[in-house]
Amino acid sequence: MTSSEDTKLAVLIDGDNVPNRSVKEMMQEIAKYGNATIKRIYGDWTRPNLSGWKAVLLENAITPIQQYGYTTGKNATDSAMIIDAMDILYSKKADGFFLVSSDSDFTRLATRLREAGMKVYGMGEKKTPDPFIVACDKFIYIEILQGDNEPDSRAGESTSAKGKSTRKKTFDKITGKVIRLIESTINDTADEDGWSFMGDVGTLLLKKQPNFDPRNFGYQKLTPLISSIDKFEIEQRANQRGKSNLIYVRNKED
To answer: What's this model's pTM, rounded to 2 decimal places?
Structure first.
């Protein structure tokens, strides 16, 4: 794939399994990875609990796809979304996919799209099962895109002043497991002196753990996150091309 500006993305949203409160932030995040030339959301729009999506879809030019629930207990939305994804794949209208859902039913779809050479990004809530997360090239939690104090409401729920509840954004703790993951990744990309280029570290971290994102821990970038941990040292080196300095990192000796 070429630059993100030239990358055509198909954004497919599972209306049954994601909240509508952060669609604007979701689309802004997706724009970082390419041009969303296809934007579709799937659901049974005759159901009252999906009525809250209407204004959001108009504001973000997302096309609603009607899918009736023919049988109780069966998710027809998943089937429609999977069929459309395969149609888009074979029509070669996209260079990559954003699958927006918190449902593990899309695990096989993500795997199949990657087998076909597609870049696959996942987006969903923190309740998303691990199989779907690891099936994607990168997985982004919706919670990190939301404001610190915003209504915790879903489609169809009341957002009246009386019924509003506010929710503080919560961040994951930097555990020993996270530190060991960073340490091993630095070792895997290090030169003979133990130094690793920060960009290489970030790339390999995503390959090892697709949902690894500094924003999960309250940091916008990887460098501030690693700098906050006493087990690593950072070094800036002049870029021979005259651009911004290059950042390197290595594990501190015990």
So the answer is: 0.81
Report which residue type is found at 191. D
**Partners of residue 35 on adjacent β-strands:** 8
Higher-confidence residue: 159 or 4? Answer: 4
Does the pLDDT of residue 84 top 90, yes or no? yes
Between CA 232 and CA 181 the distance in angstroms is 13
Give me 141's structure tokens: 């939690």
Structure tokens at 217: 């821990």
pLDDT at 228: 95
| Strand 119-124 to 138-141 pairing | parallel
Structure token pair of residue 96: 């990559």
Rounded-to-10 torsion of CA 208, 110, 125, 76: -160
| DSSP single-letter state for residue 239 | -
Other beta carbons less than 10 A from residue 23's beta carbon: 22
**Cβ(151)–Cβ(19) below 8 Å:** no
List the one residue out of 97, 133, 102 whose CA is nearest residue 22: 102
Lowest-confidence region among 26-35, 58-67, 240-249: 240-249
Whether 169 contacts 242, CB under 8 Å? no
User: What is the reported pLDDT for 48?
Assistant: 78
The pair of three-digit structure tokens given for residue 155, joined into one six-digit string: 């489609």
